[in-house]
Write a structure and sequence with these properties.
9 helices, Glutaredoxin, single chain, 6 strands, four-stranded mixed β-sheet, 2 domains
C-alpha cells in the first residue's frame, strides 16, 4: 500500500525534538542581540524573504499534487484507469480508448443489427470497438450495435448456446457470423471471427452490411444508406486505422480470404 505524503516526510525529514529546538534558540539569541540594529533588520528581511519563497514553493507543490490526481467523472471508478500495470505504454494508450462498459448504439428497432462479442479489455479489439461505434453513430436510425463482453459469464453462456467459441471474437450481422458476400468480383463466404483488420478487413463488413441494407430496406433506401456511409468507409475507417496502427495492405486480401477457410486462429 503506497505511503502518504506525511509518512514520507517523517521518514526522510525526521522531526527535531523540542528540547533541541529550545537549545538552538537559546544558543543563537545572545548572538542575535549583540548585532547592530541595522544588521538585525537585514537578517529579519532575509529571513522573511526565505520564508515567503519556501511558502510559495509549498503552495506550488500542493497545486502540482492536486493537478496530478485523475479527475472524478460521474459513473466512472478512477481506480479503474490505473488497473493496467501489466501493459506497456503503447497498450495503455489503447486501453484508455476502450471503455469498461459499452451501451448499445443506434435505434433498437433498426433492421440491421450488429452484435460484437469480444473481451472489453483486449487491446487487439480497440480498432474494432471504435469502428462499430463510429458506424452506429453515422446511421443510428438504420443500424443497431450491441457490444457483448465475452468475459461476462452470462455472455459466455450465450456464446456457447450460439455455437461460437468464447475464446474468440465474433461479429454477428443479423444473427450470423458467416455471410456470403460479393467481393472482388466473386461470391465468397466469409466468417467475421477475430479482430477486424487482423483476421479480415473492414471491406468485408461493408459488403455484408450493404447487402443487408438491400435485403432489409429495399434498393431505394439501401442506395441512400450507401451514400450516407460512403465517406465513413472511405475516410473515417482510414483515420481509425491510422489512429490504432492497423496496417492496410491490399496484398493481404487474398491471404485473409484464404484464412477464412482455414482453422480457427489462436486467441489474441
Amino acid at each position: 500500500m503506497p505511503e502518504n505524503h506525511s509518512d514520507a516526510t517523517r521518514r526522510y525529514h525526521p522531526e527535531i525534538p523540542l528540547d533541541t529546538k529550545v537549545f538552538i534558540m537559546l544558543l543563537f539569541f545572545p548572538c542575535f542581540m549583540i548585532l547592530t540594529a541595522r544588521t538585525r533588520e537585514r537578517m529579519f528581511l532575509v529571513a522573511l524573504s526565505v520564508t515567503l519563497i519556501l511558502y510559495k514553493h509549498y503552495l506550488d507543490r500542493r497545486l502540482e499534487e492536486r493537478g496530478s490526481q485523475p479527475e472524478a467523472l460521474p459513473g466512472i471508478n478512477p481506480d479503474a484507469r490505473t488497473n493496467t500495470s501489466s501493459t506497456s505504454s503503447a497498450e495503455s494508450s489503447v486501453f484508455s480508448s476502450v471503455p469498461t462498459s459499452l451501451a448499445p448504439l443506434g435505434e433498437p428497432g433498426a433492421q440491421v443489427k450488429l452484435r460484437f462479442f469480444a473481451s472489453f479489455d483486449n487491446p487487439c479489439e480497440a480498432f474494432s470497438f471504435a469502428l462499430f461505434k463510429s458506424l452506429a453513430l453515422t446511421i443510428p436510425e438504420h443500424i443497431h450495435v450491441e457490444f457483448m463482453d465475452s468475459v461476462n459469464e452470462t455472455v459466455r453462456k450465450e456464446m456457447a448456446s450460439l455455437g461460437i467459441d468464447e475464446c474468440e471474437t465474433y461479429l454477428l450481422i443479423n444473427g450470423e457470423y458467416k455471410k456470403d458476400i460479393f467481393f472482388q468480383g466473386k461470391e465468397r463466404q466469409v466468417r467475421f471471427r477475430g479482430p477486424v483488420g487482423l483476421d479480415y478487413p473492414p471491406e468485408f463488413i461493408q459488403a455484408a452490411i450493404e447487402q443487408e441494407f438491400e435485403k432489409q430496406y429495399g434498393p431505394e433506401i439501401a442506395a441512400e444508406l450507401r451514400n450516407k456511409t460512403q465517406q465513413f468507409w472511405r475516410e473515417g475507417v482510414t483515420e481509425l486505422m491510422e489512429k490504432y496502427a492497423v496496417h492496410d495492405d491490399p496484398a493481404l486480401r487474398e491471404i485473409q480470404l484464404d484464412n477464412q477457410q482455414g482453422a480457427s486462429p489462436p486467441c489474441c
